[in-house]
Amino acid sequence: MTTDQQNEATTLNRILSCGEPESPAPRSLHTEKSALSRVLEPHSVAIIGASSNPDKRGYQIINALKKSSYGYPILPVNPRGGTIVGLPVFSDIDALPECVDIAVIVRPAEEVPDILIQCGKKGIAGAVVLAHGFHERGDKGSAAQTRLSDALLRSGVRIVGPNTSGMLNCTVKADLIGLPELPPSGPVSVLTQSGNMILSVVEDSRTINGPGFDVIAGLGNQIDVGYGELIEELCLRKSTRSIAIYNEGFLDGRGFLEAAARVGRSCAIVMLRGGRSTEGQKAALSHTGSIAGADEVALKVISQMGVTQVDRSDELLPVAAVLATSPLPRPETGIAVLTDGGGHATLAVDALSRAGVPFASLSEDTKAKLRKVLGDGANVENPIDVASAVDAYPDVFPECIEILASDPQVGLVLTNGLFGAYHIRFDASLLKAENSAAERIVALRDATGLPLVFHSCYANRKPENHDILRNGGIQVFPSLDWAVSGSKALFERANWLSKRGRHEERLALETPPVVVPGGLSAETTARGILQKLGVDTGEWSAASDAGAVVSAVSNFATACAVKLDSAFVVHKSDVGGVRLGVTREEARAAADDIAKAIASHAPPVTTFGFIVTPMVNRGVELFVGVTNDPIFGPVILFGSGGVLLEAVKDVTFRAAPLSPAEALDMINETRIAKLLDGFRNYPKVDKRSLADFISSVSVAVMKMDNISELDINPIIANESGIYPVDVRLVGK
Questions:
Q1: Position 548 confidence tier, pLDDT thresholds 50, 70, 90
Q2: End-to-end alpha carbon distance in the chain
Q3: Edge-to-edge strand order for the sheet containing 578-582?
Q4: Which residues, 6+ apart, have CB-to-CB distance to 81 below 8 Å?
Q5: The domain 620-731 is classified under which CATH number: 3.30.470.20, 2.30.30.220, 3.40.50.150, 1.20.1420.30?
Q6: Which CATH architecture has domain 1-163?
Q7: Bridge partners, 729 (sequence order)
Q8: Would you place residue 389 in the very low, low, confident or very high pLDDT band (cuts 50, 70, 90)?
């Protein structure tokens, strides 16, 4: 090491060990910070593979850190030594000072494992591994990733990547991607599996004059740090108020769901998912496997945890911006649309209706106050048209917003049309009045806590008054669709948070787990396991032979269903294994007929018994199932049962376990729910009892080891209760 390097290392060791920054920026001692928090907010950066060639990433990152005025040590590493952009270069990792927060590794894949081990020996907290050539490259890459995984375990270094575009922390101006220009700092953090999506959200933020970014990270192959752990760490940062995610798949879907449910209480999450299409799932022994498509499951279980999902790439950043900056609507309120043109009003109402956003019913008092401001001939229904008054009087907007804020039915106001651009469209002298109106609107938002979202077709002109709104935390969009998506997201989040308490009723999981036998279980085995775990499977009796069938039917003292009970037959009715309405006098003959029917089955079924259940009165046929999703773990299905199950596919999903309150929401979002209320000649069903049943199944499956699928189909629900008719359980 040269004398200059020794002096530099001595200075840096003092800075890093004592927590003293090169700039006035605040800094905690390393011992007070987790390794991952040091990675996300690095107060020292080593660039391993530093280069003096401007075309190389090892140069671009150093140059970007310097250009962005990063206020902490920048430590280039290259065996050649020398200087790069005025910084002394360390000849190897061992020459670095102690306690470096993060290393950006800009070397080929085959070198990364050894570099990682050296980083671990030096006490470096984390590494951003840019190299590709790992799992994404097939078998050869998988072997390289295995070597990297081994090095990860040996080093103890936290890894972002590999195959990542890098990471930014705009709050401390740490550009570890090498962007030509660092985006402004702000409350939105971004996690993505695509480098291009990083560029996309940065440019989208420029388009909408977004509120700025805290942390932006490309996760790459997620060999170590994944979505779940990152969102929890970001949630701890006061500088992050919403998290935007672009996701193409989870390595630990269940872990993400659990983390999202915790994070969502205090920090909004918005997700755009790629790779949603599928060719379908392989037919399984139960109905469940054939109807639980991957995308449908993901859509429901991710939303269950409070994550806002968007369908278009251009929605991700605008929605995250609104959720990061806006208060939420009050519970059980709706949206009021304030417009200065019929076309925009019509489009807004159409889009909001399609999105399922509730509309506020304005009180007569509110309408009377609006007429006073807008004139007797004004349309003061929702949407409210201000066009006749606003052309000469821009201050009419804050007056209307103030009136709407006092109406208890109004939870959010969406203003659309030309707001802020009357001085452009009509008369430049209106600019002062429009700026004053914007200032008053910000003050109103602060005083009332009413969420406000603006659309203006002149937003791309970026007039002063739009900046006044944005600086006050009110988003202004050039696209009406973005304004609608943001409004919808605010209502969805408010609704989720309002239900969170009742959804988090403690779900008892103390019972010891039960091992599900591999393959298909006999129905008596399936019912026995469920009953042991607290699920009411109704009255039933196992019978080993025809005589026992007679006794069972006699004991029930009513007509019964007699069914084959075997672990070797999937569909009992297909082989003549079901007899319905069997009386005591018919019981022996029914059992004999079933035995004869399966004798001709190919291959022959030699091990079997019978299950006897009382016949159930007419009711609504329902379905409750479980699939052990490969990404998200046990998932509950509910919907129309019997022959309608696969024909209609009126089914919805939730991750297990779920509370009775969540189960009730699940019931109410299906089409069959209408029949449960006593529609036409159908009996009225106690939905709360049904919800309790679904919840009990969801808790039971969490106590089952080795479960693959569960079908309870049909379930007959009527005014008397909930009756499982057929139960099918499959182990892995």
A1: very high
A2: 60
A3: 541-543, 609-614, 560-565, 578-582
A4: 2, 5, 89, 90, 91
A5: 3.30.470.20
A6: 3-Layer(aba) Sandwich (3.40)
A7: 710
A8: low
Q: Is 186 exposed, middle or buried (0-12, 13-18, 19+ CB in 10 A)?
A: buried
Answer yes or no: is pLDDT of 24 > 70: no
The answer to whether 1-163 and 326-500 have equal CATH topology is yes
Class of domain 539-614 as given by CATH: alpha beta
Beta partners for 622? 640, 715
Angle between helices 480-503 and 342-355 (to 10 degrees): 30
pLDDT at 294: 75
Distance CA 491, CA 357 (A): 7
Give the length of the chain: 732
* Class of the CATH domain delimited by 326-500: alpha beta
Higher pLDDT, 682 or 608: 608
**Residue 55 pLDDT:** 95
Domain boundaries, the chain: 1-163, 326-500, 539-614, 620-731
Distance CA 206, CA 371 (A): 39
